Amino acid sequence: MTDDSNHQSNYHGAKLDFSEDMSYGDYLALDTVLNAQHPLSDDHNEMLFIIQHQTSELWIKLMLHELNAARAQIQHDDFPPAFKMMARVSRIMEQLVRAWDVLSTLTPSEYSNFRPFLHHSSGFQSYQYRLIEFILGNKNDVMTRPHRHKDAIYALIKQEMERPSLYDEALKALARRGFAIDASILERDWTQPYQHNASVEQAWLTVYRDPNAHWELYELAEELVDLEDSFRQWRFRHMTTVNRIIGFKQGTGGTAGVSYLKHVLDTELFPELWRVRTAL
């Protein structure tokens, strides 16, 4: 006779009994993750809206993990690992760009059915997204205010406000490699957004004119450009998706909606790296 118990405990070599062992679902805490969707309306399409934003927050969490590590590597002049981390963030942003394709299947009529249930909640209030902006140098103290009601998150955001950005650390690296960077750049108030500086543009121009002599800095520059390029595409796709679904209505968080998103598209994170292309 066939031993049914042996047959049931092994299938093509796969382990089947997890009564006393960690399973895939245990490792990923799937009970928690898959039970974190709580639609407030009876509308079928609200689940799409929730999962879209929850998965985006998970990807953003990974971006923060990579960007913080990349910044630390640049501080220690260990560039190759930083390049890999930054490249990974750019690919994550590409993933998020494609995610808007899924949300864009939501029509204006469908969104209108559950939009009132959002009240004033909005992606504008994503503290993780705000940390991404601050790490990339787009500092703005006003943007910390939606988080004052949560002490731990507010402290985290304020801490990031006061730290040198990824680009600030790149400019410090330029100075350590012997480039003449103005002291006002190297010792500036880190809570303020970065502004174009002629000495920085001249340094990057020197790097681009002789890549072989400055290969690591040249690759650092290109990784930064790739990062900002991907970030711009993510923001642009966000704007077009919002326009497609709500037109020019005010956002649930109180912003001007599409008009606000168009405005932020003009933000330039690493200005010298874009201007140097004209000077070459």
Structural class: mainly alpha
- What is the first-to-last residue Cα distance? 81 Å
Mean pLDDT: 91
Q: Please provide the ordered H/E string of secondary-structure elements.
A: HEEHHHHHHHHHHHHH
Fold and architecture overview:
By secondary structure, the chain is an all-alpha fold. It has helices at 4-9, 24-27, 30-33, 46-75, 79-103, 108-114, 127-135, 151-161, 166-176, 183-186, 198-209, 215-246, 258-264, 271-279, and strands at 10-11, 14-15. A two-stranded antiparallel sheet has the order 1-2. α4 (46-75) packs antiparallel against α5 (79-103). The longest helix has 32 residues, at 215-246. The radius of gyration is 23 Å and the shape is globular. It starts with a helix and ends with a helix. The mean pLDDT is 91.
Structural features:
280 residues, globular, two-stranded antiparallel sheet, single chain
Task: Describe how the helices and strands are arranged.
Layout: H1 4-9, E1 10-11, E2 14-15, H2 24-27, H3 30-33, H4 46-75, H5 79-103, H6 108-114, H7 127-135, H8 151-161, H9 166-176, H10 183-186, H11 198-209, H12 215-246, H13 258-264, H14 271-279
Antiparallel strand pairs: 1-2
Helix pairs in contact: 4-5, 4-7, 4-9, 5-12, 7-8, 11-14, 12-13
